[in-house]
Amino acid sequence: MRALETELADPSLHADPARARSVGKRHAQLRPIVELYEQWLVAGEDEQAARELAQADPGFAEEAEEIAAQRQEMSERLSEMLVPRDALDDSDAILEIKAGEGGDESALFAGDLLRMYERYAQIRGWRLEVISLEETNLGGVKDATVSIKAKGQTEVEDMPYARLKFEAGVHRVQRVPVTESQGRIHTSAAGVLVFPETEDVEITIDPNDLRIDVYRSSGPGGQSVNTTDSAVRITHEPTGVVVSCQNEKSQLQNKEQALRILRARLVALAEEERAAEASATRKTQVRTVDRSERIRTYNYPENRISDHRTGFKAYNLDAVLAGELDPVITSCLETDLADRLESAESV
What we know:
Elements: H1 2-9, H2 17-54, H3 59-82, E1 92-99, H4 104-124, E2 127-135, E3 141-149, H5 160-164, E4 169-175, E5 186-197, E6 210-215, E7 231-236, E8 241-245, H6 251-278, E9 294-299, E10 304-307, E11 313-314, H7 317-321, H8 326-346
Parallel strand pairs: 4-9
Antiparallel strand pairs: 1-3, 1-5, 2-3, 4-5, 6-7, 7-8, 9-10, 10-11
Helix pairs in contact: 1-2, 2-3
């Protein structure tokens, strides 16, 4: 820790932005652990002093027990913090939302999800940038890609990818669509994919591995249709990963954004392959928008939200859609921590 602080204080470090970013992230990872460990040490000294004083004055015995209880809590928290976690948790995130089964209603729900994540980013003080957006005639979202970044140095558990990775999967909605004339409740779904956006992982993209196609972008109702072939589709032939981007006005800008998304996907793919080698029971993101493979249900008539992985259930769907996602995500974090602790204990 002292070595990292010394390096951070060295002005020459910032001549190498990549190194400075790496050292800064490592410092942010270790700082809360070191601070809590130092508090644990001090509490140990205080407990010992209180027990020694209790030999002369029994009144200190109660204080010693209180300090011992606090120290036990610190010890448990330290154990949790030291359990290995996803190496990419300290990354920003690229989030994709795709309409699935349900036609126009699914696209409208995908739009609701996009606004939910926009509001959640605002609440947490993150920066959200729309990279690509394909809307429908009714104002829904057929496909959207956004980048979500933390501002400044942030503790790992508060980084966008560390929290938003649990949003990956199929989200199911039950409600009366605006297109329904007889008031019947319909079920539809939208898919969410989450990738880490980081420059700390070395990913080499060989231009010879890319097939780049250009085409004219399109918009709802014939609007926003370019008269030039500015939209770009990039296929990474070794992996089969395909990325499209049409939001920017120029072909070059769309190509740069598509390469940005492609890099994030390849980083996630490389991490999945690494995790697969380490554990045969790894969990992967759902890549098909099938209502049967849902992670969460949004029930409008009951104002209920249910996470099917953790058992979380609450009757404040309106608040969640307004960006109050933390309780839902916290249930995922707690389940993930329990799984990691169990895995660490079984080693």
